[in-house]
Amino acid sequence: MGAKLKGLHRFNLFMGSLHFLQALAVFFISDPTKGVVPITINYLSFDVATSKLLPTTQELFTVNLAWFVVGFFLLSSTAHFFIATIYRTTYEKDLQRGINKVRWFEYALSASTMMVAISLLSGIYDLSSLVVIFALNAVMNLLGLTMAKENQGKTQINWLTYIIGCIAGIVPWIIFGIYVYGSDTYGGGNIPTFVYWIY
């Protein structure tokens, strides 16, 4: 077990370095004038001419998709360096007990960040929707941690937490599907091909 842990330690240092270099590469090669998308908020406004409440969209600010890719790599890099250095002792004890708690926290942040990037690629710019997608994906991963802790050392697995996590995790993809359908049906089908490949 000791040799495996030493090998894993080297692996984590390597992956931490690799992800950090990837973050730097994306940061320096990305074009700040491309991949810029708006973040919007939707609300009701009163139209005096028609005396009706109408849906209105307001742009809050813009973001560059490259930021999310850089953020994803930096979060992954930080997690690998964290378990390879200051958290190494606890991390290795957890592994010997058959659990890896850190990965679920890392996934909750990094995977959710990437889900926001996919959302933007799918045409989801509404801030409220992005918050919901991030939160649901984070909850799904944290339920993975709960699943691991609840069933640690047990022969009879309780799948309830897993099922709830799957329900939370599928909702963002349903939202993506609705936006892709809307774009394809009503917007002329301008969704990039690689977004379909993501599905």
TrEMBL record:
Domain of life: Bacteria
Membrane-spanning ranges: 12-30, 65-87, 107-125, 131-148, 160-182
Keywords recorded for this protein, A-Z: Membrane, Transmembrane, Transmembrane helix
Pfam families documented for this protein: Heliorhodopsin
InterPro entries referenced in this protein's UniProt entry, alphabetically: Heliorhodopsin (IPR041113)
NCBIfam families noted in UniProt: HeR (NF038020)
Protein name: Uncharacterized protein
Lineage, highest ranks first: Bacteria, Katanobacteria
